[in-house]
Write the structure tokens for this entry.
Amino acid sequence: MKAAIIAIAALLVIGIAGASKYYTVRNDLVTQREAVNAQWSNVDVVLQRRADLIPNLVNTVKGFAAHETEVYKSIADARAALMGGRTPQEKIAANDQLSGALSRLLVIAENYPQLKSNENFLQLQDELAGTENRIAVERRKYNETLEHYNVEIQKFPANIVAGIAGFTRNDAYFKTEPGAREAPKVQF
């Protein structure tokens, strides 16, 4: 009888310890998942800031280069895709499209010396450069937070808890754009 009570008590202690560990790990995973969501929100805020700057920049350039309608349309389309993106993957793809369109806009600006000296254009260009730096910082933080979450749900015993509680891997990383690793060709 005494042995049965000891066995039941031991099983009870093991059960309580197991349940405690399960809830501790699950709570940690919830915290990490929410950190990923919060960091994505930070990325989204700076992407929104850039999207808000773009109409002013485009209108300034339009005043000097009205015939460059294809570039303006690609910027408008990319901005609309960014604003309409619902998932991180959609916003990341739209952001890459917008970056390319902005690059073409800035190339156009190079062809207009009077535009390059316009105070409004220079101020907008500086704000855009600052925003691009913020985007880079927030992308890096987001990728680090996402990596930490993805690593954590693969570790033992968190992988067991993650499987039971429905935590899954999230692969919505910001990646280098195709061709970005190639050095630009400079010709004189």
Q: What stands out?
A: Residues 2-64 form the longest helix (63 residues).
